[in-house]
Design goal:
Blueprint: H1 3-10, H2 13-24, E1 27-28, H3 29-35, H4 42-54, E2 58-63, E3 66-71, H5 73-87, H6 92-108
Antiparallel strand pairs: 1-3, 2-3
Helix pairs in contact: 1-4, 3-4, 5-6
Length: 109
C-alpha cells in the first residue's frame, strides 16, 4: 500500500467523511450515497469509494444485491504511524505502542 495513495485519498473532504461514517459501522454503497444525496451523484460516490479501496483504506464485499464497505482500521493507522515514524523521530515511541496494541488485538481474536 502506497503512502502516496493514502494521502491522495485523505486529501478529499468527502472521502474523509466516508471514512468517518465507516469508522462507526459497515455500510452499503447505497447508504453511503444517501448521506451525500444533495451534494453529489451516486457515480461520484462510487468513484470516491473506489479510490479509498485502491488506497487500501476500505474493504468491499458483495452480499446479494448490495455492495458493503467497511474501514480497514489497521491499514489506515499502520500507514500513518509508519509515515510519522519516518518523518518525526519523536513519534517512534507511539509507533512501538501502536504495534504492541495491534499485536494484543490480534491475539485476543
Amino acid at each position: 500500500m502506497s503512502v502516496d495513495k493514502i494521502f491522495e485519498a485523505l486529501a478529499s473532504a468527502p472521502r474523509r467523511r466516508i471514512l468517518a461514517y465507516l469508522s462507526k459501522t459497515d455500510m452499503t454503497a447505497g447508504e453511503i450515497a444517501g448521506r451525500f444525496a444533495s451534494e453529489m451523484s451516486q457515480p461520484a460516490v462510487s468513484k470516491h469509494l473506489s479510490l479509498l479501496e485502491n488506497a487500501g483504506l476500505v474493504w468491499r464485499e458483495k452480499r446479494g444485491q448490495s455492495v458493503h464497505y467497511g474501514l480497514r482500521e489497521d491499514a489506515l493507522t499502520g500507514s500513518l504511524v509508519h509515515f510519522l515514524a519516518e518523518v518525526c523521530p519523536r513519534s517512534r515511541p507511539f509507533r512501538r505502542d501502536s504495534a504492541a496494541a495491534a499485536k494484543r488485538k490480534r491475539a485476543s481474536k
